[in-house]
Amino acid sequence: MGAGHAHKLYRHGHSPVHGLPPHTKLAAAFAFVVVVVSTPREAVWAFGLYAVLLAGVAWAARVPPGFLLKRLLIEVPFVAFAVLLPFVAEGERVEVLGMSLSVSGLWGAWNVLAKGTLGVATSVLLAATTELRELLLGLQRLRLPPLLVQIASFMIRYGDVITDEMRRMRIARESRGFEARGIRHWGVLAKSAGALFIRSYERGERVHLAMVSRGYAGSMPVIDEVTASRAQWSYAFALPVAALVVCLLGWTL
């Protein structure tokens, strides 16, 4: 998979959660999200317990609340959609603070907010405790199709390359006195986008030829063999198992 590749969501640490093999964390996170989504929306207390479980994971991983809350802002568009549901949904209406709101819309908004927030928080904690390279190795270990793993690997690496190329082009434009202030400057920006596309395409061809010349035949060599013990699997699945108990209580109570 190549050398390590740090990302902004990752928080370096030596906690027990950081030390778990990546494929155990991926499987546990996926199982937890499935359990959360399967919980009836009427079991409001269950989602509170899920939040407590995630807070326990964050504490064990030594991830500060501010770090987690700041990265939860990515779900703001979904929050805006959920806020609109009570106003646009049909069905039985109820008066809240002088406003006529749909009962089904209120439940739908709660469902989106609760499950969406817990899902995003799970993803943020996974990214905060697992490096990108380890995530790719974990996906490989979980028998994800090799082609998909390679595509994800190249996307991660060349995403940064293209971003850096965009930054250099912006600096070159500004050093020549250019500053986009209105629609009349869109032509220059469009030409820059076209040049970026051509450079990226040519770079991709050169990289592919270099890989083929070094023996690439459609599959990447496995550099690190990641394994996990029963204890590590048990530790990782403590979260989804506890969540499953809460979910079953939510359906029965």
Automatic annotation (TrEMBL):
Q: Which InterPro entries match?
A: ABC/ECF_trnsptr_transmembrane, ECF_CbiQ, ECF_transporter_component
Membrane topology term reads: Multi-pass membrane protein
Record field: transmembrane: 43-60, 109-130, 233-251
Reply yes or no: does the keyword Transmembrane helix apply: yes
CDD domains reported for this sequence: EcfT
Q: Which residues form a coiled coil?
A: none
Which locations, inside or outside the cell, does it occupy?
A: Cell membrane
Q: Which UniProt keywords apply?
A: Cell membrane, Membrane, Transmembrane, Transmembrane helix
Which NCBIfam families does the UniProt record give? ECF_T_CbiQ
PANTHER family xref list: SLL0384 PROTEIN (PTHR34857:SF2)
Q: Which named protein is this?
A: Cobalt ECF transporter T component CbiQ
